[in-house]
């Protein structure tokens, strides 16, 4: 495929990925399930046995981090560091997005992020990234939450993996954008009070587990295809650069590929 075809494929895969996530977390996995109006424009119809509730019914609390002065470089393994807001961009936790805590600064041990934590950004230079949430699968030790990150504590019978997928869906993202714009004097910030008002489906725990497992499998396939397309683009770009370089330096003879002006006449 050419560059344009590969780029179109990547765009389609990203669009499909988002649609699959949004449908699964708001409509469920059973196409034959009876539906009912949620009463909420963002959600539309939901399975009849689900409820539409405010996030305050799902979240048990928030733990906010701390942002001391840090070195710009990432912390080496075993060093203390402070996570940056970019650690949750795209719904994927990246422990490399951190800054080293100076040796003379005492760490706040209770703010260390652990596998299984649900981390959410409350502020960012880019409004599109505010409210990004990711489940911590693996992480190097001694990384702390910054003051622009929340650790989300859930009510009983709530699955962190499902909630992470839910907050990456279009219906929830639309509400987050409105919550940011409605927070007067709090530009590029998402306060706890606004998060608690977001409307979400209340889903039985066993279905949450099934949906999370389904989305793990489906998105893994699409992410693999996207990575392959990105590698193909890189390879095509490298080949193109190599050909141009060879032609410019005379390593290949391109005279026979250029139409003769006399013949053309």
TrEMBL record:
One GO term (biological process): DNA restriction-modification system
UniProt KW keywords: DNA-binding, Restriction system
Keyword DNA-binding: yes
Protein name: Restriction modification system DNA specificity domain protein
Source organism (scientific name): Mameliella alba
Keyword Repeat: no
Molecular functions per Gene Ontology: DNA binding
């Amino acid at each position: 495929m050419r560059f344009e075809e590969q780029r179109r494929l990547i765009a389609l895969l990203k669009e499909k990925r988002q649609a699959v996530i949004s449908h699964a977390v708001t409509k469920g996995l059973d196409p034959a399930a009876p539906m009912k109006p949620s009463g909420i424009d963002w959600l539309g119809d939901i399975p009849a046995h689900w409820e539409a509730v405010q996030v305050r019914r799902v979240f048990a609390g928030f733990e906010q981090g701390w942002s001391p002065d840090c070195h710009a470089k990432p912390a080496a393994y075993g060093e203390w560091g402070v996570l940056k807001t970019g650690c949750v961009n795209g719904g994927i936790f990246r422990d490399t997005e951190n800054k080293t805590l100076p040796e003379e600064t005492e760490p706040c041990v209770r703010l260390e992020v652990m596998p299984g934590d649900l981390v959410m950004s409350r502020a960012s230079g880019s409004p599109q990234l505010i409210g990004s949430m990711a489940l911590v699968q693996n992480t190097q030790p001694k990384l702390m939450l910054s003051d622009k990150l929340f650790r989300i504590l859930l009510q009983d019978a709530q699955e962190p993996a499902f909630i992470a997928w839910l907050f990456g869906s279009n219906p929830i993202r639309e509400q987050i954008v409105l919550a940011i714009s409605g927070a007067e004097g709090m530009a590029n910030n998402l306060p706890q009070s606004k998060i608690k008002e977001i409307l979400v489906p209340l889903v039985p725990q066993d279905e949450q587990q099934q949906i999370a497992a389904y989305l793990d499998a489906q998105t893994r396939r699409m992410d693999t295809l996207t990575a392959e397309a990105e590698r193909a683009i890189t390879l095509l770009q490298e080949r193109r650069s190599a050909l141009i370089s060879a032609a410019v330096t005379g390593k290949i003879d391109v005279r026979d590929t250029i139409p003769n002006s006399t013949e053309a006449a």
